[in-house]
Structures are given as C-alpha cells and as structure tokens.
C-alpha cells in the first residue's frame, strides 16, 4: 500500500514539474527577439506592428509580429525613430 502511494505521488510530482517546464518555455517564446543587423527575416505576412507611443522625437522600441515563409510566427523587436519626428522640421 505504501509503495503504491509513493509511486503515485512521485508520478504526480514529475507530471507537475514537466508542466511547469513547458509553461516556462511558452513564456520565453512570447518575448520578441532583438533584431541584429543582417538577420534574415523571410517575412510572408505581417500580423502586427507595435511601438511605444510618445510625443517626443526620440529613438523608441518597436516590435513586429509576422508569419515567415515556413509558416512559423516570429516576433522581432527593433529600435526606430518615433512617429513624432515625422511632424517636426
């Protein structure tokens, strides 16, 4: 009886640990990858583009989520001049 309880408890603990490991992998995949100069993008379809809103002309962080030519969703962050710079002389 005690051996069965021990085996059941260890199996449940192992299942819980593997579930936590998978949850960590998914949260890491949600973070955008920083763009490096020369990095191949292979964009097939843009899904979303986001940037930090500001009224100042300055360098900001932006990210693009896209579908690559292999059908995989990619999320890449990059630095750019804010939209406020377009309206200044």
TrEMBL record:
<dbReference type="InterPro" id="IPR021245">
    <property type="entry name" value="DUF2790"/>
</dbReference>
<protein>
    <recommendedName>
        <fullName>DUF2790 domain-containing protein</fullName>
    </recommendedName>
</protein>
<keyword id="KW-0732">Signal</keyword>
<dbReference type="Pfam" id="PF10976">
    <property type="entry name" value="DUF2790"/>
</dbReference>
<feature type="signal peptide">
    <location>
        <begin position="1"/>
        <end position="23"/>
    </location>
</feature>
């Amino acid at each position: 009886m005690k051996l069965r309880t021990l085996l059941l408890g260890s199996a449940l603990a192992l299942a819980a640990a593997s579930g936590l490991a998978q949850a960590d992998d998914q949260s890491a995949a949600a973070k955008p990858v920083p763009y490096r100069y020369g990095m191949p993008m292979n964009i097939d379809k843009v899904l979303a583009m986001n940037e930090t809103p500001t009224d100042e002309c300055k360098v900001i962080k932006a990210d693009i989520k896209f579908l690559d030519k292999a059908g995989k969703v990619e999320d890449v962050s990059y630095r750019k001049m804010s939209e406020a710079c377009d309206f200044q002389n």
